[in-house]
């Protein structure tokens, strides 16, 4: 009986802890100035745009990788010898080129979005900065830069 009470109360306290930390971590909008609220809206919009670009790039990279792998399997079944090696090398070079373009475009676009939002937030008196997160694109892992706010 005591074990049941202890187990259920532990779960209850854990649940309360999870809920209470998220409540205390959030800043009520009533405590923020108009400029701070506007800056947070700008940053939230920028982060949503960055998230959408990341999701799109992940989809593109995954589709590219799947196509590349299917083409390599097809080549292995239909070609032999130096022809196989040459065609695989050419396909790998093309795959790498396109994947690097996806990565470079994502990096440059998200960095620009972050920089513009950070600049706008600074003009409103809010300090924001990039926080780098790892994003897996096909067989590559890259750092991309959503924004965090310091108040």
Give the arrangement of secondary structure elements.
Blueprint: H1 2-25, H2 34-78, H3 81-123, E1 127-130, E2 133-137, E3 140-144, E4 147-150
Antiparallel strand pairs: 1-4, 2-3
Helix pairs in contact: 2-3
Beta-strand percentage range = 5-15%
Estimated structural class: mainly alpha
Q: Major beta sheet, specifics?
A: 2 strands, antiparallel
Low-confidence stretches: 1-28
Query: What kind of oligomer do you see?
Result: single chain
Kindly state the number of beta strands. 4
Protein architecture, described:
The longest helix has 45 residues, at 34-78. This protein is mainly alpha-helical and 151 residues long. Strand 2 and strand 3 form a beta hairpin. The protein has three helices and four strands; from the N terminus they run αααββββ. Strands 1-4 form a two-stranded antiparallel ribbon. Strands 2-3 form a two-stranded antiparallel ribbon.
């Amino acid at each position: 009986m005591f074990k049941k009470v202890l187990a259920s109360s532990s779960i209850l306290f854990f649940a309360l802890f999870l809920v209470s930390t998220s409540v205390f971590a959030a800043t009520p909008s009533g405590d923020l100035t108009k400029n701070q609220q506007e800056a947070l809206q700008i940053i939230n919009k920028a982060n949503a745009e960055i998230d959408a670009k990341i999701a799109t790039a992940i989809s593109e990279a995954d589709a590219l990788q799947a196509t590349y792998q299917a083409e390599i399997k097809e080549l292995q079944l239909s070609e032999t010898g130096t022809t196989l090696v040459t065609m695989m090398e050419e396909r790998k070079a093309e795959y790498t080129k396109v994947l690097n373009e996806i990565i470079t475009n994502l990096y440059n676009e998200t960095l620009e979005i972050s920089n513009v939002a950070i600049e706008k937030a600074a003009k409103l008196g809010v300090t924001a900065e990039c926080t780098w997160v790892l994003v897996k694109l096909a067989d590559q892992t890259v750092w991309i830069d959503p924004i965090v706010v310091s108040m």
